[in-house]
Amino acid sequence: MTQTRIGIVVVVAVLLALFASIGTYRFLSEKGRMAEEARLQTVGVVVAAANIPFGSTIRPDQVVLSAWPKDRQPKDVLSDVKTAVGRLARRDFIRGEPIVESKLLSTTKNVGMLSLRIPQGMRAFTVRVNEAVGVGGFLVPDARVDVLMTTASSDQRGTRISKIILEDIRVLAVGQKIDQKDSKPVSVETVTLAVTPENAEKLALASNDGKIHLVLRNFADSEKVKTTGISKDRLLSAQRGVPGSSGTVKRQRSRVKKAAPASPVRVKKYTVEVIKGNSRSEETF
């Protein structure tokens, strides 16, 4: 009886081990199949193995081939590490970011770094500045500024007027620097702005016909405000509290009321009757 029980226990143990083996085999097989399907649904793309700064030449240790979902691969992404090495980065790449053809430039092309920063359809315009015009040296690349022009008006008096002619303009370079290494103010003689061709014409005229100032604005403030400009007459009239219009001061003439002609004074007369005997007479006083 005891041997029978032992045999039953052995048989049950063998069956359980068999079922466990079969379950483990199926699990591992399914996992392998899923891994193979995932491998077939991914492609190898070139990604940045480290941060790649703008304008630098890509080194072999900065890129690596990585698996990427086939249905999510970026357009014109590189698939061979050799095609990325030695190329020039047209913008910053962060670690793990795919390297795309449109953001690279061949080192055989003789181009400057500044031309790479000019947005499509824009132009780079350089203006001469001093410490005051250049916001005390606190202008940095990628800052936003307004352009203020001071010139003589077109009226016969030639009154000088100041007016904001361009707003929310991006600074491409300060002096010969296209990036900001630290936060220290730097005194420079030129500032390069990114403007449209139309605004480049305005800026050229303003630079030659008057004096321009750069007005630094909050980086997050892109709202444009229309102003009418201000002349010297209007500025002084505002200080005196006298209203002005169209750049000229309306002089208020003091009006003196003329005194009305005095009416003639009426003198009251008295008449006295004088009787002398039989004669009578009247005396007027």
Low-pLDDT stretches are: 244-256
List how many beta strands DSSP finds.
Answer: 14
- Following the backbone from N to C, one meets helices and strands in this order, namely HEEEEHEEEEHEEHEEEE
Task: Summarize the amount of helix as a percent range.
Answer: 10-25%
Which structural category do the helix and sheet elements fall into? Answer: alpha+beta
Radius of gyration: 46 Å
Can you offer a commentary on this structure?
- This protein has 285 residues and is of the alpha+beta class.
- The protein folds into three domains: 40 residues; 63 residues, Type Iii Antifreeze Protein Isoform Hplc 12 (Alpha-Beta Complex); 115 residues.
- The chain has four helices and 14 strands.
- A hairpin with a 2-residue loop joins strand 13 and strand 14.
- It is elongated, with a radius of gyration of 46 Å.
- The protein starts with a helix and ends with a strand.
- About 5% of the residues have low confidence.
Task: Please tag this protein with its features.
Type Iii Antifreeze Protein Isoform Hplc 12; 3 domains; two-stranded antiparallel sheet; 6-stranded antiparallel beta sheet; elongated
